[in-house]
Amino acid sequence: MRTLIVGVGALGGTIATRGINASVPIWLATRRAETAAVLRKSGLRVSGIGGAAEARSVRVAAIEEYAKGDKFDLIVLATKAHDALEAAPSLARLLAPSGTLLCIQNGGVSQMLSERLGAEVVLGGLSNLGATMVEPGVYEQRNAGHLLIGEVAGGISDRAMNVAEALRPAMEMRVTANLRGAIWSKLLLNCSVTTIGALANQTMRGYMASAAGREVFGRTYDEALAVALASGTPPERMIVDPVPPHGDRGRWIDQILAHYGDIKPSMLQDFERGRRTEIDFINGYATEVGRKLGVGVAMNAAITAMAHRIEQGEVRPDPARLDDLLRLAG
Fold first, then answer.
1. Residue 237: pLDDT above 90?
2. Which domains does the chain have, with CATH numbers?
3. CA–CA separation, 180 vs 100, rounded Å?
4. pTM for this model (two decimals)
């Protein structure tokens, strides 16, 4: 399956390195020709969980250059959510007949693109792979994550199974019949684990050591879960059951900590690099849907506002942001 990976950040770069190393026919697309030139010279390397892998010979070019060549059977869209919405229409023109555009962004991106481009083009997905881009072309995998894919409308399809088989040499692949439920399950963890850590400049294990961190986590997660349930989409079990047990919430939190407790939040990396974050597709998305459904989302709204303040340079990520959030959310 001739595959183009668009976006060579932590996720796209890790998948590409392991895939090329395993002889998967992969090409890479970057936004700028200069970036492509650097990667052609340096190659790709990944270390960490899953072992070291290297791709010395990399077929990579700026996106617009692929308009002149052969079409692709599969395009993996591994960019930030806002970039995915902007790039997808032009990328669809690079697909071969019956080709597939696989979206692995947070929030409702897969559904939005399916409505715009057609369900026959778009396959949805999400990743729980924890990875960091040390520098362009150099990545560190932080957990034994997987890529979960499925039809936006639900059900198991031959297309999803074939895509999973094609990418399996690169990473663990799973297929779900309830993609929307899986997306909400990932969103629950992103809203709480990832975003709170980014604002506090800490890992989950770090901020959960404080009373303020535990309260912010609990309120954020519970709000987002209430929105998911009110939307009529039952979240799927991923790392943990999405509905915390009433009698033993501590053990449930320990399970999350075991998988995500020591991972540096990707949003914190965006803050450090001065990049736009995906906050509007994470806590902002939960806030928007919650308000439409009449569900209380005060903490998620406060988190969204605080993330934008950090993006704009008004404040910095710091543990003090936890107390700020409690005051803002009331």
1. no
2. 3-177 (3.40.50.720), 181-329 (1.10.1040.10)
3. 18
4. 0.82
